[in-house]
Amino acid sequence: MTNSPASQPIVEFVDVVKRFGDFEAVKGIDLEIMPGEFIAIMGSSGCGKTTTLRMLAGLEAPTEGEIRLDGQVMNDVKPHDRDTPMVWQSLALFPFLNVRENVEFGLKMRGVGPDERKDRAMRWLERMEIEQFAERSVDQLSGGQRQRVALARALVTEPKVLLLDEPLSALDAHLVIRMQQVLTKLQRDLGITFVYVTHSQSEAFAMADRVVIMGDGKIAQVGKPRDIYRAPANRFVAEFVGRNNILTGTVTELAGSTVAIATPAGTFTVSAEGAALPAVGATASFVIAADLVHFSPDPMAEENSVECSLISEEFVGSVMTLFLESKDGTEFKVQTQERVLANIDLKATGRFHLGWSAASAHLLGE
Amino acid sequence: MGTKETEKKKRGFETFAVVWRVPLIAWQTVFFLGPLLFMVAMSFFVVKNYRMREAFEFVSWAKMLGRHTFWDAYGYTLLLAVCSTVIVSLIAFPAAYALAFKTSATVRRWAIFLLVVPFFTSYLVRIFSWYVVLAESGPVNSVLGFFGLGPFTMLNTMFGTMVGYATLTLPLVVILQTVSLANIDNRFIEAAHNLGCGAFRTIHAVIVPMAKTGLVIAALFCFILSFGDFVSPYYLGGSKPPTLAILIIDTTKSGQQWPRAAVVAVMMMLTLFTVAFSSIWYAYRKRGSR
């Protein structure tokens, strides 16, 4: 972050398309990644996120468009001439080399002498707290330890950009949390750019400065985790991020920046702050995050309210999710702390009034 | 009752296993171990007046191992087999590499099928074909003569012997190498490129170590087949100087010296066992275990 001006992106995708025969894996993406950023590219399998990462590493050539690294067009640069080491989902540690030799590999390829190689590899193994396994064979290590070897091997050449392809997907849940801490700390200390591909929302939101949501070969939204959660750009993102109430209806009235939308569950007001105002009579969708919906057994004086019956509930940690249904059959989700519900007998009450402010609702784009 | 039934089941299973093992064990005992032991015993027999007599004397061993002829033949045979192993492995590798990485699965299947075809014809027949092809007035020298080269003497030379060995072993070595290279997970090769290892360098930095077991086994087959072969050095190499296999035949022909021939054979077996054991140990050796 210190050696290049922050205004100059380190990675640029300009209208990049990748086709495999008739199949279009990446359908024209534009993306700028700034130096020192932790970017997570997230999407379900087959959305083109891994292909995007592989193009950045040079393992696939883009069919159309341009990929720039540090301002330089990389389209025709061979993978071994790039400085974009990758941490692989399978780790791909060489079984015929021991731990230290694996870490030394990148340095050896760059012509670094044996003594310096060993020193630098050992420093990284120490940093990863696995120096005692230096002379072991890779298959004698646990999953978490191997993960650290893979990180050391990729970082030993001190690259400007590190690529990570679902590196935590093979680990146990408790190790994932540990490694998330290791990765965030490492990224902050080193100040280098991390491009992290994952299908896991919790990983992406926990670590990344910005998240790129991909679907069907296109970028659906780029933004800070908070913004994506609170203000999803479109229905795809809103559904992908989950635990949201998405309603669709016809625009009936415009009053300032507030839009009234008639849905089967009732007419609700939605703030269109910062979004393009739809025309009266047009179809529009909006989303209310499940934790912004208030509820009560009694009718409430909110800008928007709807009466629902309780279908079921889900209890994880201290968070409770209620699944409800309005008279017309529209589903609603409400998320709250367990202690809020402590003095309400859910089963006996059965019917609830849900309420939310126009500002809590977010108008969706196409 | 439950345990009784399990016991019965177990006994039934054991009978099944034994029945299927017996033929193999019997075959190996009668046709391999038996003759081998007999050969070792025969090397201690003595020959008097062109007749072999059972004994336990070291006469043949002393006679053979004390002779230049034997050690010259031993050295030459070893040299030929090592050269054949190295040359054939080197010639086979680019072909196997191309088949494993540069062709589609369909092309690879067809290539492996075509590599099996040479085995349809007797090895001896193929060697006699070379005898015609490589002759002083044969097609190879005619073509070279057309360009003003040669004629070259190719028969009765070490070159001729090598052509014969390659005929015997090359298809097999290419198949074995192709299979072991095709089994390498492509992600390791990509990982090497990603860490700055160029395409050519990846071959010795990653591909050869990854395929080590298969490549060593292929080379071992080449060595074993070449070391024991009689046909190539005899017909294409002109048996000058003789190899161990030729020495065995010469020894039995001259004065019924079966015990001396047995000494040569036992020495060959010992060499093959040593080479086979050490190369298999090397092929499966793991790195960095401590």
Overview of the molecule:
With 366 residues, chain A is an alpha+beta fold. Chain A has two domains: 11-230, P-loop containing nucleotide triphosphate hydrolases (Rossmann fold, 3-Layer(aba) Sandwich); 235-363, Beta Barrel (OB fold (Dihydrolipoamide Acetyltransferase, E2P)). Chain A has nine helices and 20 strands. Chain A has helices at 49-57, 99-109, 114-127, 143-155, 173-190, 201-207, 225-230, 235-241, 346-349, and strands spanning 11-20, 23-33, 38-42, 64-69, 72-73, 86-87, 161-165, 193-198, 210-215, 218-223, 244-255, 258-263, 266-271, 283-289, 294-296, 304-316, 319-326, 331-337, 351-356, 361-363. In chain A, the strands form four sheets. Chain A has a six-stranded mixed β-sheet with strand order 6-7-8-3-9-10, with helices on both faces. In chain A, strands 13-12-11-14-20 form a five-stranded antiparallel β-sheet. A five-stranded antiparallel β-sheet of chain A has the order 15-19-16-17-18. The model of chain A has no long low-confidence stretch (mean pLDDT 89). Chain B has one domain: MetI-like (MetI-like fold), CATH 1.10.3720.10. Chain B contains 13 helices and two strands, in the order αββαααααααααααα. Chain B has a two-stranded antiparallel sheet with strand order 1-2. In chain B, a hairpin with a 2-residue loop joins strand 1 (46-48) and strand 2. Chain A binds chain B through residues 57-59, 78-81, 84-86, 88, 90, 92, 94-99, 101, 105-106, 109-110, 135-138, 140, 153-154, 157, and chain B through 185, 187-188, 190-199, 201, 205-206, 209-210, 212, 286-290.
Q: Poorly predicted ranges of chain A (pLDDT <50, ≥5 residues)? A: none
Strand content of chain A: 35-45%
Please bin the fraction of helical residues of chain B.
Answer: over 70%
Q: What is the CATH level 1 assignment of chain B?
A: Mainly Alpha
List the topology elements.
The complex is a heterodimer of chains A (366) and B (290).
Chain A: E1 11-20, E2 23-33, E3 38-42, H1 49-57, E4 64-69, E5 72-73, E6 86-87, H2 99-109, H3 114-127, H4 143-155, E7 161-165, H5 173-190, E8 193-198, H6 201-207, E9 210-215, E10 218-223, H7 225-230, H8 235-241, E11 244-255, E12 258-263, E13 266-271, E14 283-289, E15 294-296, E16 304-316, E17 319-326, E18 331-337, H9 346-349, E19 351-356, E20 361-363
Parallel strand pairs in A: 3-8, 3-9, 6-7, 7-8
Antiparallel strand pairs in A: 1-2, 1-4, 4-5, 9-10, 11-12, 11-14, 12-13, 14-20, 15-19, 16-17, 16-19, 17-18
Helix pairs in contact in A: 2-3, 2-4, 3-4
Chain B: H1 2-42, E1 46-48, E2 51-53, H2 59-65, H3 68-101, H4 105-116, H5 123-133, H6 139-146, H7 158-182, H8 186-194, H9 199-210, H10 212-228, H11 231-236, H12 244-253, H13 258-284
Antiparallel strand pairs in B: 1-2
